[in-house]
UniProtKB/TrEMBL annotation:
This is Osteopetrosis-associated transmembrane protein 1. It comes from the Eukaryota. Keywords: Membrane, Signal, Transmembrane, Transmembrane helix. The keyword Amino-acid biosynthesis does not apply. Residues 1-20 form the signal peptide. It comes from Drosophila arizonae. Residues 270-295 are annotated as: Disordered. The chain crosses the membrane at residues 191-213. The gene is LOC108612953. PANTHER family: OSTEOPETROSIS ASSOCIATED TRANSMEMBRANE PROTEIN 1 (PTHR15644), OSTEOPETROSIS-ASSOCIATED TRANSMEMBRANE PROTEIN 1 (PTHR15644:SF2).
Length: 295
């Protein structure tokens, strides 16, 4: 019976080795897996040839995830919330976050990374086979690669795998800046049209503003004179005549009183003069000399 139990335990340990390991062993395996994953990420900070972060560290990431899962199944009560920093789960979360920020899982969906790598290999081979006419002979390969990347970027809502993103960015720099294959020709007709529009637009705006202002002034003038703003507006002489006619007439009684005051002043002044002076004029005579006031 004991032999049978021992055999069963051995078989279980062979099938699921984590069940036969102590929590200390599982913790040690997780620490080693995390160390290998960190080393792999650091080593792929800059791509070595064509090996990049996601594809180069996929195996290490899977090993780390498996070790963490085995430890949590058997020893979660011991290592979870065991200290204030919660070191075990915090460290695993940081490493998982690094993988997620690179969107590495997008590389392995629908073999996206493999298809993109094939297009990149075709483009690289074309560049090597046509060193003197890269822009002409390798244009189709570049367009296919670029279109595949743009469609994939649209489908994933910008969550592009870091490996493909890094390859595409470097390829675009190579194509446009280093090889100078992106030559954007400016059409002379477009340039001249732009210059004409920029030159004529201020004149049109000024002319339109002058017309609007003139129309507004004519409309205001017509409202004040209770007539439409036409060219037959009253002349200057007509306006002067109307102003003279509208001047109020001084009553005769007021004029008589003014002449009486003048006569009295003259009589007072003449009393002091010699006999050779002119005789004093009566009010009626002064009125006759000065003439009647306008009615």
């Amino acid at each position: 019976m004991r032999a049978l139990v021992s055999i069963i335990i051995i078989i279980v340990c062979i099938i699921t080795p984590s069940l036969c390991k102590t929590c200390t062993d599982l913790l040690r395996e997780l620490a080693n897996a995390q160390m290998e994953f960190v080393y792999c990420n650091t080593r792929h900070a800059l791509p070595v040839q064509d090996e990049r972060l996601c594809n180069g560290c996929k195996v290490r990431f899977d090993e780390m995830s498996t070790s963490y899962s085995d430890l949590m199944k058997s020893c979660s009560k011991i290592y979870t919330d065991a200290d204030r920093l919660n070191i075990l789960t915090t460290t695993q979360s940081m490493l998982q976050s690094l993988w997620d920020r690179a969107y590495c899982e997008e590389c392995f969906k629908n073999n996206n990374s493999g298809n993109f790598t094939s297009l990149y290999d075709s483009f690289s081979t074309c560049l090597a086979e046509h060193p003197d006419s890269k822009c002409t002979n390798c244009l189709l390969e570049y367009i296919n690669m670029n279109n595949f990347y743009k469609n994939l970027d649209k489908e994933s809502n910008g969550k592009m795998c870091f490996d493909m993103q890094d390859i595409m960015n470097k390829t675009r720099v190579l194509w446009s800046k280093d090889l100078k294959c992106c030559k954007r020709e400016v059409k002379m007709s477009t340039f001249l049209t732009t210059v004409v529009v920029v030159a004529v637009l201020p004149i049109l705006l000024l002319y339109s503003g002058a017309i609007v202002l003139t129309k507004r002034r004519e409309a205001n003038h017509g409202l004040l004179n209770e007539q439409e703003p036409e060219l037959d507006a009253p002349s200057t002489s007509q306006l002067i005549t109307a102003a003279i006619l509208s001047t109020p007439t001084v009553p005769p009684a007021v004029v008589d009183s003014k002449f009486n005051k003048i006569s009295n002043l003259l009589a007072t002044r003449d009393s002091d003069l010699s006999s050779d002076d002119e005789p004093i004029l009566h009010p009626k005579q002064s009125k006759q000399l000065l003439g009647d006031s306008p009615k």
